[in-house]
Amino acid sequence: MSNDLLTADIGLIQRILPHRYPFLLVDKVIDIDGYSSATGIKNVTMNEPHFQGHFPSKPIMPGVTIVEAMAQTAAVMVGTALDMADKEMLVYFMAIEKCKFRRMVVPGDVLMLKLTTTRGKPGAKVWKFNGVAEVEGEMACEVDFTAMMDLPAA
Question: How many other CB atoms sit within 10 Å of the CB of residue 64?
Answer without folding.
Answer: 11
